[in-house]
Amino acid sequence: STDEQIKAFANYCGYIAEQCKGKVKYYEIWNEFNQEGSNSGDTSGAAYAKLLAAASEAIKAKDSNAKIVAMCTSQIDRNFIKAADSALSSMGKSNCYDVVSVHPYDFSGSYRESNYKLNISLLKSITNKPIWFTEKGWNTSTEDSGVSERNQAVYTILDYLVALENDMCERIYYYDFQDDGTNAAEVEHNWGFIKAHSAEVPGEAKPAYVALAAMNKLIGQSDYEST
Fold first, then answer.
1. DSSP state for residue 206 in the 8-state scheme
2. Hey, how many other C-beta atoms are within 10 angstroms of the C-beta on 201?
3. Phi, psi (5° rounding) for residue 160?
4. Fewest Cβ atoms closer than 10 Å to its Cβ: which of 6, 57, 114, 157?
5. Separation of CA 81 from chain center
6. Per-residue pLDDT tens digits for 166-203
7. Would the pLDDT of 226 be above 90?
8. How would you list the strands of the sheet with 67-74, edge to edge?
9. Would you tell me how many other CB atoms lie within 10 Å of the CB of residue 106?
10. Residues 6+ positions from 162 with CB-CB distance below 8 Å
11. Which residues contact 46 (CB under 8 A, 6 or more apart)?
């Protein structure tokens, strides 16, 4: 959050952009800056705006064709995004990023379509940038927020189809491909579509993997028109 830290991070971003020019098009700036613990200093939208502006400038100085994915919030934090945009506007840096990224998880343990649609509608009311879900998923732990492996598959497909039908976002990146561990009671171990390396059957497909493959086979080469 300090000027010295921001300058150091911007230098790092510029170096990465220089090394990756021609190979990488999009750069996502930070991960869940709004969440306590993700950043050891000020987690406000205004603080993020300073970091974002500096990082974007450093990246585009090395690769003018680079696109900047910003906000990257835990959940759909509209107050954070509005505060960041307001700070960028006052700095004259409103155009320093190209895409709004959010992580719209639902930890209720059930699928709430109306809540999902409302939150995205409210987000669209405060931004005219393209929206990406750079993390979206369902954990299969035994904790209260967990769902069965069958429901993980069902909700994953619903996420995609509801987003498509309602023009919610340009892209969805599911979190994540492989379980991080084998402890059924640990939320962070159980987001994958396949089992962990250390599982009894390493890499065994969960139903969600099969469901996504089947959906892609059915509609992967199709254009969406209407319900």
1. P
2. 8
3. -65, -50
4. 114
5. 14
6. 999 999 999 999 999 999 999 999 999 999 999 999 99
7. no
8. 26-28, 67-74, 99-103, 131-136, 171-174
9. 19
10. 113, 116, 117, 168
11. 83, 84, 86, 87
Q: Residue 81: which of 60, 105, 104 has the closest Cα? A: 104
Buried b (16+ CB within 10 A) or exposed e, 69-101: bbbbbbbbbbebbebbbebbeeeebeebbebbb
| DSSP-H helix ranges across 24-148 | 45-62, 78-91, 113-124
The arithmetic mean of pLDDT across residues 115-132, rounded, is 93
Q: Percent of the chain, pLDDT > 70?
A: 100
Confidence of residue 227 (pLDDT cuts 50, 70, 90): low
Neighbours of 159 (CB within 10 A): 22
Closest CA to 103 of 65, 63, 133, 83: 133
3-state secondary structure at position 183: coil
Residue 226 C-alpha from the chain's centroid: 26
Structure tokens given for 36: 């306590």
User: How far, in Å, CA of 153 to CA of 49, rounded?
Assistant: 37
**CA distance readout (Å), 78 to 14, 127, 191:** 29, 10, 25
How far is 103 from 92, CA to CA, in rounded Å? 27
- What are the start-end ranges of the H helices in 166-206? none
